[in-house]
């Protein structure tokens, strides 16, 4: 049984996944192929072709197609009774294109499909997110929390997964979007679209002293008091845009003009941020965390569960997840690593598999590295075409560990590309955490502001020593704190409040990356390396060897480990590769 899940709504984060007999076997985002962050307004044509080609399949081999939306067009007006019938459900449209939404029909034609070949299942957006977390958690029974900006007119869902069934407990509309609150605060501070991670990084520099009275928590959940003209569950519909406008008005009334209007460009030095701006970031982060803790506790109480899983774009907030993962009495926690809309087709396809009579295999996801991989010949050709001299060390992990111990910055490219927004040791830039200056240099290489934190990758078995809580966090999605006796020794991965976004590495899952960290540790005594995504600020994470070589050459990093090969940055004086061994 094969199901293709596609996010092809034409909005952002176009992506495709392939399910075979209840297991996710391939997953890729369109942005990686077209080199355009978030692939806004694009269809995932390259991603679907890769998914099919990677398994030597054609459209005739696909049993079902699933999409994580039920509205015909993004932002269209839902019909009366919509939420009672479909806001947490699905719709089978069959294989005849006459019944398909225009945007999905266009995608299918572009991707080489034909009418009548494969049936389409539309899975409501929050059900898709819920399924992506539930079926990848390894929990047979769990409370489920989905929080995002909006999807099919829903912004927050509390649900219960039990015995392969997912049932809704509470839902909150677009008007009550916590995701939009956080996104609008991000925009207000001049951090731009998709800059929520920057806001999370700025928050520890401020004080949570400001209140957001618009967020009202109550025993049944919460409400956002924004504008009496915004109505919930109205068939005519309160638009996504009107909620954004209401938040910007509220923030402007209290805090003055948005930073974008006040000062163009993102401040690169911490001193360029006013105390009020820092306090707004800290207070917004605190308000979001308080709301999420409240909703998680409500979901646990309503479901009677002692486990929690979370998805939706807000689930990418590592700091909030750090609190959720350690709620009193909680016995298990899982955050979907592809929590945003890029990961929604995973849940849509898994749910469609259930509908087709093939329940997914509910086992704990241990790796999201489900994208393309490239052979040694392809790597060698990319290096040669760029004029880079290279060599094949006996053990590239040992060589990389040695260069890291010399405080050199290494671009690391190995195995299948990871999905989701975080680099997890397949397409990473790595460095020693021993000096804060190295962290600054890596941020310069990435063209990021120097105040932004960088994450540690560490061997799974060292988590108890380096981290205060010391849990297994393989997806860099749950924050922890660096243990006090390590903070001065690894300043490159310690944020202003002592926190970090750890990436624990299991030797059985990532043997090469684990070995590189191990060699570095043997040389330095330090149990972690700096890990950030292999890209600069303008592009998505690299996909191919050609992407890797191009990004390396313009980055200023010292060493490129590309598959089995190692190359050095050309000398700035001669333009020739330094042939160090």
Automatic annotation (TrEMBL):
Gene3D superfamilies the record matches: 3.30.420.40, Carbamoyltransferase, C-terminal domain
Domain Carbamoyltransferase C-terminal: 402-567
InterPro entries, sorted: ATPase_NBD, Carbam_trans_C, Carbam_trans_C_sf, Carbtransf_dom, NodU/CmcH_Carbamoyltrnsfr
GO molecular function, one term: catalytic activity
CDD domains, alphabetized: ASKHA_NBD_TobZ_N
Classification via Pfam families: Carbam_trans_C (PF16861), Carbam_trans_N (PF02543)
Residue ranges of domain Carbamoyltransferase in the record: 2-350
Superkingdom of this protein's organism: Bacteria
PANTHER family: NODULATION PROTEIN U
Name by which UniProt lists this protein: Uncharacterized protein
